Amino acid sequence: MNIAIKAALGCALGFIVVGALVGGGRSTAPPAPSVPLPSDQVRFMAAIKQARSQFTSAPNELAAGGFRNIRQQAICSALNGQSASGWIGKVAYLSTNGDGKGVITLEIEQGLQVSTWNNALSDYSDKTLIDPDTQFFKSLAAMKRGDTVRFSGAFFPSNVDCVAEQSVTLAGSMKSPVFTMRFSSIRKL
To answer: Tell me, what DSSP letter sits at residue 165?
Structure first.
């Protein structure tokens, strides 16, 4: 048999073996659990999504800015008070601040997050950072980015957004908001 043919067959066989070993490029990770979302979470997400769409399609900056007030009213209507109970999200960020206190950000849909503060100065009065001496901190230490979780917690009141939002700019707040939360529970699904 010709050496070129043998080499080609050897390469082809090698690709087949490697492809079988690595799953042919397909992910072997299990699909995310399909869990029904609480109705207030669905309404909250819809309020954010609608305002984002209106903001990005506004004909000018003045018109775009007006949609934040409309979103504020929609958020207040969507929430049962200033809390989330049994909401579903994914761990987007899990770390500690300079003092060793827990910092966590959960993504409830693409471009929409709830989070603790990430530093003691911003957290001075809200007390969202998670004490490392608690069981809550220890349970979070076993989680990783991408984990689907069920969580509960309290938002903080805001005259601008109904509940406090961390973005520095109007565009950041409307396009990819991060709402501040003091979490009371987070457990992996």
So the answer is: B
